[in-house]
Amino acid sequence: SGNYYHQGEIRKKELEQSCCVLGIPASDVTVIDHRDLPDNPAVEWDTQLLATLVLKHIEAKNINLVVTFDAGGVSGHANHVSLHTAVRYSVCTLLWVPPWGCRVLVLESVNLFRKYISFLDVLISCLLPRDALFILTEEETEQAKRAMRCHRSQLLWFRHLYLLFSRYLVVNSLRLL
């Protein structure tokens, strides 16, 4: 629930506001608030527990595409890495693969230089191998920035730099899991 700084309720509301900006109705937003899955950048979550929760959600909502972090978690955040591990476990161990389930795309983590060269990374990303490449229009980039700004409790100084320079607000390269 994003309760690392005891702001879980605030962050839940910010998430709903952000999703609204992106055109995602609140009824399609699920926040998992589980005592064994604390929001903490130093805690690795239990793979089997998380995989079970994710699978239940996917089945309940009849989801056919999941986009998640890669093994680097984009920022190295332990919770992000745990999510990747759980989804990978689901696909590899629980036989949750097409045609029985859904496809999984993982967002490519890039080095610090590429992460903060904004639209200039489009050229690099076009030349490198990937399964999917999403290049946002100027309108979509502004929409993504508005959505990020809804997370006021998390907008520390370095996240303002992220809003200005991050390639992830312009280009995202993904691989099939």
TrEMBL record:
InterPro entries: GlcNAc_PI_deacetylase-related (IPR003737), LmbE-like_dom_sf (IPR024078)
Gene3D superfamilies in UniProt: LmbE-like
An example Gene Ontology biological process: GPI anchor biosynthetic process
EC nos: 3.5.1.89
Enzyme class: hydrolase
Leader sequence residues: none
SUPFAM superfamilies reported in the protein's UniProt record: LmbE-like
Single GO term (MF): N-acetylglucosaminylphosphatidylinositol deacetylase activity
GO cellular component: endoplasmic reticulum; membrane
PANTHER family, per database record: N-ACETYLGLUCOSAMINYL-PHOSPHATIDYLINOSITOL DE-N-ACETYLASE (PTHR12993:SF11), N-ACETYLGLUCOSAMINYL-PHOSPHATIDYLINOSITOL DE-N-ACETYLASE-RELATED (PTHR12993)
Family affiliation: Belongs to the PIGL family.
Protein name per the record: N-acetylglucosaminylphosphatidylinositol deacetylase
